[in-house]
Amino acid sequence: MKYIIATSIVLLSLCIASLPGAQKLYTWTDENGVLHITDQPPPQKAQIEDVMTYKERTPEELEAVQRRKDQLRRKLDQDLQLEKAREDRQAAQEAAADAQAAEEQADKEYEENKAYIDKLSNRKWKRKKFRKKIDRLKKETEESYAEAQNAAERAEEAQKKAVEAEASQ
């Protein structure tokens, strides 16, 4: 109960304290066309504006606003297209780098597996004994090359997409 009373007293005192502090704001434009908003009265030469009243716009003003909106919308669309083209170029470059890395990895695995397969299959009895291992290594090598091929295809698609995005500008 004491808490409620103390809280209400504090809120009431804050409300009462803020009443005398209310000020009048003046909005005026100087001779240079600069808008000023102050609590000091404007000079004699200033054009005083009442910002609280609704001012009807003329058809010319509305048309100018609409033209400006259309111009800004076109500019935004162009900027978005440029950004998309830049992102597509970046994606194409990354895909090309990934494809190059995948191809290098596949070549490396091929050389390693080829040397190991040659070592395992240099004698007839070794070929029979390690047949499953040799087949597994061959399969891994083929999968590695297939992965590199897929990466190259993705890079090519990304490059085509980037070219299309640049052409649409």
Question: What does this entry look like structurally?
Answer:
The chain is mainly α and 169 residues long. It has two domains: 2-48, no CATH class; 85-167. Helix content is 72%, strand content 6%. It has four helices and three strands. The chain has helices at residues 2-18, 59-120, 124-129, 131-167; strands at residues 26-29, 35-38, 47-48. Strands 2-1-3 form a three-stranded antiparallel β-sheet, with no helix packed on it. A hairpin with a 5-residue loop joins strand 1 (26-29) and strand 2. Helix 2 runs antiparallel to helix 4. The two termini are 71 Å apart. The mean pLDDT is 79.
Uncertain ranges: none
Secondary-structure-derived class = mainly alpha
Strand order of the largest sheet: 2-1-3
Give the termini separation: 71 Å
Tell me the number of helical segments per DSSP (H or I, 4 or more residues long).
Answer: 4
Q: Report strand %.
A: 5-15%
Computed Rg? 38 Å
How would you summarize this macromolecular structure in one to three sentences?
The protein has 4 helices and 3 strands, in the order αβββααα. It has 169 residues and is mainly alpha-helical.
